[in-house]
Amino acid sequence: MEGFLLVAAMSSYLYIIKYELPLVIQAFLGLQEPTGDWYFNGNVLIIIVSIFIILPLALMKHLGYLGYTSGLSLTCMLFFLCAVIYKKSVIACPLNATHVDHAVYANGYNVSEEGCSAKLFTVNTETTYSIPIIAFAFVCHPEVLPIYTELRRATKKRMQNVANVSIFAMFLMYLLTAIFGYLTFYGDVDSEMLHTYNKVDPLDMLVLCVRLAVLVAVTLTVPVVLFPIRRAIQQLVCPGQDFRWWRHILIAVCLLVNVNLLVIFIPNIKDIFGVIGKNRLVSGVDRKYSLEPRTPIVWLEPDPHPYCFHQLITM
């Protein structure tokens, strides 16, 4: 069942690319409405991204080789966090003027004075969405075994330290992003926070760069998710057999083709989770709530000769 959850994760990331990348391209081109050109077609874009970015990374022999792309993904999310913190200092509240000053923004996105006070806890219809979102963001245990097998001098204690540091770092990043995003717009922050900044200045170059960085982070997360799925399939179908490139490539291509078909032909991400039988866990998650990649587990000192899975199980 964890394999189905990882397929859902891959689908959610490709959904983000499908719907956000055309909007980012449109904003960079300074267009008010998308044209009929191919680069505004989300289905075409996810196929291109899958072939030229995700597939080559997914064909790496060992998960440790993706350490550099994972570092770049983490850097993109740090850039996201820094931009949110910076915007808190330059966006005034209430935003009740009708002009844009690029030192302090105020372009007609009206917020009352009463809306500029923070509340410690808010309960509304959107509150129920937070639980499945948080749970989904920290679903990283399927990657533990593949990462463990590629740790040099692998031990349970060392793997636990890697997991603790990674999860705590991501928790801190998510927490700071949420706090500063909320303190910028208070109760008027949208469920998709980056789109709230568009109401302040739709052509803000910093926000556009942040949105692009988030898309890069999401794209680079997909190959990391694909690795444990492929490893599980190999262990089930051909356990104990030596590595074969044709099998390694075939499984990756089949997975990407099927996930792309899901994203193209199923219009809503809720339907994806329903099809794989996980809608009971994440029934509230929709594309607009899924901006951030899941928590990555950062591994150290990848070993070119990984251990076998059963070595961990028998310890």
Automatic annotation (TrEMBL):
Please give the GO cellular component terms listed in this UniProt entry. Answer: plasma membrane
Q: Where in the cell is it found?
A: Membrane
The UniProt GO MF terms for this protein read: glycine transmembrane transporter activity; L-glutamine transmembrane transporter activity
List the transmembrane segments: 12-31, 38-59, 65-86, 162-185, 205-229, 249-269
| Domain of life per record | Eukaryota
Q: Does the keyword Chloroplast apply?
A: no
Pfam families linked: Aa_trans
Example GO biological process? L-histidine transmembrane transport
**Topological type in the membrane:** Multi-pass membrane protein
Q: Per UniProt, which keywords does this protein have?
A: Membrane, Transmembrane, Transmembrane helix, Transport
Residue intervals of the Amino acid transporter transmembrane domain: 6-277
**The protein's name:** Amino acid transporter transmembrane domain-containing protein
Organism classification, top ranks?
Eukaryota, Metazoa, Chordata, Craniata, Vertebrata
